[in-house]
Amino acid sequence: MGDIASFCLLSIAVFCGAFVSGLAGFAFSAVAGAILLHVLPPLEAVPLMMACSITVQATGLWALRKSIRWKQSSVLVVGGLLGVPIAVWLLQAADARIFRESFGLAVACYAAYTLFRPVLSHRLQMNAGRNALIGFGGGFIGGLTAMPGAIPTIWCDIHGVPKTEQRGMVQPFIAAMQIFALVLMLIRRDLSAKVLVDFAVSIPALLAGTALGIYVFRCVNDALFRRIILSILLVSGLLLIF
Question: Can you spell out the DSSP letters for 124-170?
Fold first, then answer.
């Protein structure tokens, strides 16, 4: 990322990803990756997106700290920590392209359907055991698609969880999964010095996008937030396919 054009592309990608993640609580990699994966090799783009996403999640967790649901989120995290290593092994042992495309199609179909489905008139109760399974699925799929928040977000939508409580459950989970995945990459020595340089350069755009996203989040009601979330899931699913 040495010239002005590359710097602008990096800043635009990071700003857009940070804005969406600040607003919705997830999907940084899906949005930023649509640009970064075309201008950087995967071994640079993926850890850069993880580092940026962790920063966004940390900022969001601080801004929404009074709404964090530590107990419910910890159940998701325990399940997710079991799913990530399996995904990492699969990435080395098999071609995950078909799985990513199939998962993207399923997410896009769910989002398209529920965008036009009537809103639930009552909230369904969650179960700790099922939440752990959802966490496992989120960690497993996150290791293959860089979208650990997709499954827990869909789970919250199915149960009619309000926007603030949903963020309080899903954001700590996403942060934990991305930190764990980044630690695995450090252990495997998959990080280069260029990733740190690109991350440092992207910080202004990262903070600006995050701040704007959190501001918009606080301004929208639950119904509009739900439609935004489903629209982002739809686009994220399509990006996994194409």
Answer: PPP-HHHHHHHHHHHHHHHHHHS-TTHHHHHHHHHTT--HHHHHHHH
Burial class (CB in 10 A: 0-12, 13-18, 19+), 231: middle
Does residue 206 contact residue 193 with C-beta atoms inside 8 Å? no
| Low-confidence residues in the chain, pLDDT < 70 | 1-2, 91-96, 117-124, 190
Q: Are 174 and 148 in contact (CB under 8 A)?
A: yes
| Residues 213/18, Cβ–Cβ less than 8 Å | yes
H-assigned helices in 25-69? 28-39, 42-63
* Spatial distance between the Cα atoms of 87 and 113, rounded to a whole number of angstroms: 28
